[in-house]
Specification:
The chain is mostly beta strands and 306 residues long. It has a domain at 218-306. Helix content is 0%, strand content 56%. It has no helices and 24 strands. The protein has strands at 2-9, 28-32, 38-46, 51-58, 63-71, 76-81, 87-92, 98-104, 111-118, 125-128, 134-139, 144-150, 156-164, 169-174, 180-185, 190-197, 202-212, 219-224, 230-235, 240-247, 252-260, 272-277, 283-288, 293-298.
Amino acid sequence: MTANLARMPEQPSANRMRWRLAARLASLLVAAACSAQAATVVYVANADSQDISVLRLDKSQGVLVPLDTVKVGGTAMPLAVSPDKRFLYASLRSQPYRVTTFAIDPTSGRLTRLGESALADSMANIDTDRSGHWLFSASYGGGTIAVNEIGKDGIVGATRQLIETAPNAHAIHADATNRFVLATSLGGDNVSIWRFDAQRGRLTPNDPPLLATPPKSGPRHFVWDKAQRFVYLLGELDASLAVYAWDDQRGVLRELQRTTTLPAGFGGKPWAADLHLSPDGRFLYASERSSSTISMFRVDPATGLL
């Protein structure tokens, strides 16, 4: 499932119905809050039906209420919300590869298409830098990461940098300082570490440039804690979950803990998918597809350990 959450001012609605997603979906979940009194709007990318579902979370009943369905004219998969919550970006993984920019209505959360721009490849993951001026993307099939400029109007522009990585690049995100960018290589069993020049939109290798992960672990998705002291990394191929200390001065990762997201007694082939920290940072959730489970971990606030 590819879903993005953005919080908008609460709007009354008489249509309180349970929403079941019938389409097959990709996998990413990002939450964004605008105010303490805001409602939560959920954006779900539907790959097969080539559209985006716009839903409102009714927190009193724990249901999703459909607001709109927006056609995108391509295989919509990874989504990203701009830091100021004004724009939604949807990567289309059918040819021609491109990214569509939508304006988010600040009251209703509904989407208005603003434009489309070419992407260098089929991108498995997209995200903006902390300023919202640059779009990062990672291509699983192409083994590349890229940087595109974002205009003052919020529309993504041309590719400014394309870098070949180890096979199967999967996720790419900037740290809170906007000085470092991490990208996973599932096929290369590593996390590449880049210094980022936010003025020019340029990535250069850090020193050291790579963190090696265990063979055939298949690093997939990762997340920083809110204080930017720790990084949590999920391995797709072995369903491992690793905790790293993060040095935000040197851009260095140091492993502290390694555990599993598999349920006890599981004997099948691991196929881990995604992970997310709760907004208060107390709990971490990781999904595993072969066992159809979500594992829940308590986070030690002092050590970051699970």
